Model the fold of this input.
Amino acid sequence: MIYRDFKDGKKTSMLGMGCMRLATLPGPGDVVDYDLAESIIQKAYENGVNYFDTAYVYLSGNSERTLGKALSKYPRESYYIATKMPGMIQTKEDVERIFNEQLERLGVDYIDFYLCHNVNERTIDTFINLEVPQFLEKKRDEGKIRYIGFSSHGQPETLARFADLRDWDFAQIQLNYFDWFRSNTKEQYQVLRDRNIPIVVMEPVRGGRLASLTESSDAMLKEARPDRSIAAWAFRFVQSLPGIQVILSGMNAMDQMDDNLGTFAAEEPLQQADLDLLEKAVDNLIKEVSAPCTACRYCSECPQELDIPEILKIYNSYAISKSFFALGALNQLPEGKRPTDCLGCGVCANACPQNIQIPDLMAELAEAMNRMGRRG
Done:
């Protein structure tokens, strides 16, 4: 296991176990499959993982409960628990109540790494106005918190504003090679590096999307390194960056655990040729799964008056990520103007100079929306 020096002589395993996606049983209620979750947590611990990340809102609180119970059989000083204060708080009383509830759920007297959860453009002022950092400092002085940090999905400017509030012990951001090449992740990373804040990485495999790209993109990577899984490329990319303290992986199956333990057994930094190949694989992924819409609006004669270029923009985000979160933008469209309202008449496809089979993509989005509705 790779370890990184932290503070006070402590070392954290570079592989951390994220507990947002613990295996659940069929049916409603976010009921965790405890036997499976415990066996995975046990294997992680016994193979050197000592950093376990959860949050108040994960799995309706069952993530914290499961993690606390599963770790309770080990010496308390032999592992680190990270959990978070949600941005949905409205009063200082909420902050105190939630923190005490987390201690009870986890069955511990103190929390090692405590974060303000998902600091972004909507939540930053809530954390500041309710003086959450000051509350956490008080709890640290009482011995109930060891280290104080925050996680963020915000813009670099928001990240910098919050980072400058105090001397943070660590911070957590989404970082993976796809977002590095195609988003503002590099800027977010630099905000933290400029302030010498140790970085905990979430979504290194982008919610599992980078565990398998497309058949041809996977083939590129496999040809270069037949012995390396596609997911391992994503972890090796993050391992290669300076300043990374922990890389979280939401392992909910033993094969994922086994592969990750192999990847984190020893360091193997990527070389420039590897980085060039990853960027090429990303370009190929986007080319293969995206609709090549140029927003020329030749399709605007739609009898339903759908904003087809805007819908195709959302489709591309969904096709690349395969995440239901990307479909949320469809619900912001006016009623009667969504993919579910497409007649499948083909007027748009006949007019499209890029030969996009628009009715097929509308049907795919409509089915995805229906699945999302059944899940919710």
Notes: The longest strand covers residues 111-119. The chain has two domains: 3-280, 308-375. The radius of gyration is 22 Å. The chain is about 45% helix and 15% strand.
